[in-house]
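QUALITY CONTROL LOG
STEP: pairwise intake check
CHECKER ROLE: data steward
CRITERIA: each record must contain a sequence immediately followed by its structure tokens, with no blank fields

ENTRY 1 OF 2
RESULT FIELD BELOW
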Amino acid sequence: MNEQDSSTELRDIRRRLNRLEEAVTRAGIPLIEAAQPTVPVTPEPPSKKDVLGRIVGDLSRPSPPPILSAAEVVEEKQPAAPTVPTPAASIADAVHDSALPVLPEITASERPVAGGLFELRSGLKTDERPAKEPPRSFGGLELAIGTRWVAWAGAILLVLAVGFFVKFAYDQGWLNITPVWRCVLAAAFGLGLIGAGEVTLRKLGRVASVGLFAAGLGILYLTAFATYQYFHLTTQAGAFGLLTVVTAIGVAITWRSHMLTVGVLTLVGGYLAPFLLPGASTFAAGLPLYASSLLVLALMGSALSPERLRPLRYVGLGLHVLITTLWLQTPDVRLGLSLTFLAAWWCAIATELVLAARRGQSADGNAIASFVSTLWLTGTGIWQVNNAVPDAGEWLALFCVCIAAATLTLAAWVGGGWAGLRDGPRDAGRKLAASLWLQGGILLVTAAGLYFHGRGIESVGRTVSWLVMAVGCIELARRLPSRGVEVFGLILGTLALLRLWSIDIRLPEMALVRATCDYPMIGELVFSYNVPLVLLAMLAVFVGAMRLRKDVSPALPPILSIIGSLGWLWLCVIAGRGMPVTIGWWLGGMLLGGLRDLGRRERFFEIAVAAMVLAAVRWFGVDAVAGRFSPGWNAADLWPVLNVQMLTALLITGGAIWLSRVEERTSEGAKKSAPALIAAAVCFVLLALSFEVDRVVSQFVAARAGWPEEWARVLWITLLWAAGSLGLVVAGRRSQCASYVSCGRVLLCVAAIGWLTLGTLLPRALLGAAHCSVVFNLQFAVGAALLGILAWTNRPPASPAETDGPDGASQPQPERQLRAAGWILAALVGLWLGSLELDRAVGLNAARLESPFVVRQTAFSVFWALYAIGLVAIGFARRVAWSRYAGLALLGLTLLKVVTVDMSQAQYLYRVLSLLALGIVLIVTSLAYARLSKRLLGGRTPVSS
């Protein structure tokens, strides 16, 4: 076959495949893209006559092999390793039994369209015809309506019809027979229906006979009840016996037919008998024995026919709980009799549950039924014991312990001992064991709560016992290990903490002060029963956080550590008044920081830092500020610096520095944050020293300096912060630490702003100029010191880490902004210094001057103009644009002041002098700009002069 014949044959095959593809698409067969390569297999390729049969064959194969794409059909096959196509590989491969010859490449216009037959979902079978789909069964809602619902409705209607017909016949006088025969005929009719149900069961099955059985039992129940209630043919005991016989018939039918409907009707009728005929039993144990028999029958049906009669367990359990609870409320029930029957009923229920769990049946139902039965047994038993022996907490606790021992023993037997807790509820037996373990734990918790039944301080024993049990559960969960035990311990611990917070801590007996230790000028320590209780809770929480399993959620140990730390803070508040509270918070932070290596998972170090910060905040807000402004504060009460307040501040500062050093030595990531922490500690020390400066000024400086006390206090504190900022900048430049330098500059800016506002303008506006020497005074000295420190700290540093150009262009943006703010404040401080001293000089010589106002304003104008020239000159010399702008702005402000203020009240001579001086200043400034403009513009010619 030549190349032309091969191409013709291939096009013919393609046309046929396209037609077949359309047929398959119309048939609804899904088409997908097949991009997987051909998988070599060993079966022989199919013959040509099976191609069409394979295409229309069975398409339900679950795991189809891959399909060849169109490109693989025409691909040249290797002669050394020929590929055998799969049975459903490709239609083109199935046409020829041997390998195809080399064919020309198919053009893009001739390629099959995506989604074609080459992309047909594989799954075709070659050896079987498509199996016929089985007919759908008649089920679902339609089956339920046509069988069960209709049968129930028929039975109810049949019973009602018989009842109404008998009543109608009796009213019409048709039944002129005695009441005995009426009951006999009704019973015979009911038995006849049951017989018809038996025949129907044998001939047609359960579905057809359920209505007849239900109707027959219903008529028998009504007849037995009517013999006593309406016809008075028998006593209560006799009617109760008849109802018991009918119940036995229903049980027999249930066992015979395995019908759940009949069983439920039998249980309902049987348990309704004591309600319909109260007091029918002739001895004390009659009713509980009768109820016990019904419960046993329900449990036996559930055990012997679990597929059909399993719901009888739940129906019987619910009805039994209802009727026996009402029986236990009767006053003539003895404690021993009630506890005996309660134990027997619980054992019967547990036996059936264990049997079902051993068989691997009803895993969830077993656990729920066991929990409900134990809860009911415990609740009714506690109620019975409490009614018989009031305020007998020890007996109630013993009762709960006995039930807990039974449940835990049964859990260990069913769940395979500790393995059930360790492996988790994987099957029915383990799920029942998990429910029993949980019941035992809850019963032990209840026993502890019942033992400490007092309303006063004795009730705190519940919280203590629950905390101990919670820690024990966490430790047990770590050793097993067991997730469920750990969760139970956490829940129990949470309940204990909630009870402590909401109930125990509010008891008057707990909050009563037992002992106090009062320290003058420091505070006092208070001891009450709340102190050991909160301390125990805090220790329990910390132990629980540290003993949690390794695979626990990573967020849980830190949460418990935070709760324990809050408990410590609360304990300090309860046990202290004044400074001891702050010292206690600091001590807690130090202890947690020391336990850093033991509590990495619990985040002890982070919590320690937070505790240190809280101690610092409390020291500032409560101990320092609130104490300073309290009505009884006196500066002479304590020595400056040598007092507990300053000592506490130093302790907090030292603790913060120690924590930063510890973290810096043990963590690489903390090396960047440690300088910031140390700088914050230094700021805190300066804050503490500020209060001591306040004390020194109040005791010594103010009276001797002749300054008002508030004014002197602000100036000395400003000088203190300026000195501290200078120390930080020096330390930062020596250690090449940018954090120290930045913090120092910020503090210096704060000090400068404080001097400009609180130290100069505000006192001048409120108190006037201080009567002291010009220049040689405290205000000028502090301002000059600030100006010098600002100039020195903002000069270009020699350190390679901070080297920058004249404008600081190479520094980071925050550093440049801090330097610019420092220079601006320095300029303002210099302006303020000269202005204030001129004002003070005029004020001191006001009596000798003819016009003090004019002299003061003229002096201000001249000084401001000269100062503006100085700023412009500095801007030219250092190439600092903001300095030139500030000088020009100050010149403009001075000119405006001269025109509006100075000329308003000045004499002719003063006006001339002011204008002359200002004109000279402006001319000198313009000449300086004209001469230096080329230098400022980088050698370029200015646009305009």
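ENTRY 2 OF 2
RESULT FIELD BELOW
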Amino acid sequence: MRSRSTLHLALPLGAALTAACAAAAPDGDPEIDDDEVAQTSAAIVSDLDGFHESAPAELELRTGRATKIPVSWFAQYSLTLSNAHDVMFRAVCSAADSEVGRCDTGLLVSWGVSSSLFNDNDTSPGAHGAGPGGSFVDPPAQAATTQYTVRAFSLMRATSRTRVQYSTNGGATWASLSGTVEVGGTVVRVGALQVGDYLEVESHSNGAGHADTNLVLFSTTPAPERPVLATNDQSATDRDPRLNIAGAGWQNGYNYVLLGKAARSTGTNMGVETRVDLVHGPLSVVTSVSRTSCNGPCGAQIAAGRYLVYVFATIDLPVGAYNSAANQHLSGKMPELGGKDGCPSNERDHYGDATWYRGVPNDIAMTMQLERRDGATWKTIVNRKIPRGAFGAAPDHGWNKFALPLEVTTPGEYRVVTIEHVPGIELFGNWRYERNPEATELKVVSYNALYGGTSFNHAKYKNLANLLGTRGSIFRSELRVEERLDQAPFQWEADVLGLQEVAKENDDNDPDNKYTDVVLAELLARGSLDWTFAQGRGETFSYDGAGAGPGMSPLFVNSHFYPDATSSKVYFSSASKAAAGCQDNGGLDYFTECHLSEQGMGDGEIYNYASAAKLAAWRGDEAARPISVFNVHMESSEGPADFAPRVGELKSLMNIVDKLLIADHRAFNRAPETDGAKSSPKHYQNRFMIVGDWNVRAHECGEHYWMLRMLRERYGYAVDVSMAKVDFTGSLKQSMHVGDSGYGADEVPVGYQHMWTDDPRSPPAWTAWSTEHEHGFFSDFPWWAVDWRGKTPTANNAGERLSMIVLVGRGWAYDDPVLDYTVMSDSNDFSPMNLHGRGVEMWQPTALGFPICPDEGAVSNHPTRSYAPNHSLGCDYSASGGTNPGAPALHSDHKPMGARLRIWSR
């Protein structure tokens, strides 16, 4: 008998579908004000690399819903062979195609009612005539006429160029089932399935048109022959497929589904690739286990399946809070910023010291451990360090839920333990485990693009769209999806993209859409989702300044997150905008420009604004979870005189939010009209995000601490996403304003590293970061989390974290929402933000407005370590120019930052 190869499943996708964390309320039982208990998909990650996945990476459905899966067409053939016979099948890849990432196939062959074989990489490609990425299946010899179903698909996000063949004479000759064809499809590992479970595709259109898909379930257990279950339409009106699990033979961890478009076409990108959700039900099966009714944390016997296990906790002092002189930590005690007159204090601006208290800094608040009983002892499976910055709920406004993923292939006894608590932690009296929790994931990105005009603006904004909003390219005339190795792993594929300082056509204060439209056109040209945008100006000058006029602040939203699946629902209504005092530029539905008044705390020389949009975390036919998004561009920072205007602007933004809550509460929560608290700032379902260039002095003055405190006091919950995650070492340096390790008697943080000033005291408590010539990978100053790059051509110059992504509203408290946070790595330094050592070349602006050609930097121009832009910014004569790997792709004094988020229950 010829040998059969075993499974090796590898899928390089832009957003790994894994499983993670969650949140809840100490005013009674955590579910007391929750009208349903539903949960998520996305995993605890041990690093900050969730935005750029390495290839290959397996795609998994770890919980109840996988969001926005890209699905293309796979090939399916039928072959009937008469009488006794012995047949082999293969999917052939050329060596050249495999080498450049154009072919990596899977082959699934089934026959009879319960027999199938799967192969990924042929174990003997030379003997079988297939290329390195080809596949080979050798069924047992059959004694009678047999009908075979042969499915060939791609084990990459990209389509694979292949030929499907069979041989009935031991491989001496091969006949074709197809000519050269582009095959796609998506394989997802679904794990253990119990009797009564179901697997279902959900699309916005119930499978109509381009969203019509096929669903195939197969297993790769050690026994080589297993059944294949396949389905298409549920009904004439619902063409999304669904499979119900009736047999007990699927209770193992070797189960996979193959998804594919029912048909493909060259008319649109969606004709080549569609986006769907995959659901594993029954959803959100919750079991509560007492923490206190046994000797030690109580355990529970858990059956095979995939779960999130979680605890509810609160803390008396969230970041930025204070209750005594010992933990006020006045910003004015921070060292002066050479020539900038230091951080704010009452003696400088007379607004009261309490305005500038940084309060308690971020630290590790507790460690959560998932344990399994092994005989008489408990063994830790995984643990998670939880920062204080992840406790977004105010102490009197709810619990925070924190979760760990659990896959059970063999039933056993498990428990959750929390250790290493800081003072002030309170835990609810039980822990819970939830099978198939349902949630939606989304990626949000913020980037100041620099509004200064250049000769390459069109190319710059197209590259921006490619890097931040798409992954790969669709060539619909060829029915092909491409993912280049020098592009796809770098691309973020955001769902919500907030840009600031987008250039305009004219040098004035008037708004226009010129380069906003360039970004939109590129998003539509490369990807398989529809997009729209809402925007207003980010700032205007009250004087006639020289140079380009201030830029626009668009919010791009893709169609998977349109409220009611309608692009027009992304925009606030005219009535809502008027009620909040926001402008619509003469009645434009997409235009939302809300003036951020300085409230008399500034000179008014620059007018700053927020733009706003609505989106919804989709839940199939259930009620979506509404989320509002605000894109801010606050007063630029030149010292204490500008801290106060930002306080006024934040107060103004909160007033705008409150008015929009009254005018359109369904943009923030889904409370019924009969709910008397539906427009309350502290409604338990409220969710909104604030992204943008806040111009905060986060690292230098800890300004984000008191901004978070202001938001938390008004809305009951606020989290700066950078403060909710540890890095892969368990460190919090990416979220600290200076790398805090406690405070001295003078209230200056121990270990403080100013950017360019040594500590003048004796003995000194810090050395300036800029004097550390060989600054380390784990430098106390988080140079790698800085988004302001400094207005110099030097990519690793000292900078600030001026931009923020902040989650506000008590609805987030049940989501444990922050799955990943990152700042894009440039090509000059290896960054802990990208453990694979990849980088994107980013030009700085110069005095002449046109940058010099870049050097290679530490990442170099290697095709898998340096991004190759689709559009040239110049230096075409250079090896590091044009569209080569390592050529400049972006041009700004900022770097993009992003967060991967989860919306879970409320």
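INTAKE CHECK: passed for both entries
DESCRIPTIVE NOTE, ENTRY 2: Confidence is low (pLDDT under 50) at residues 1-27, 32-50, 52-57.
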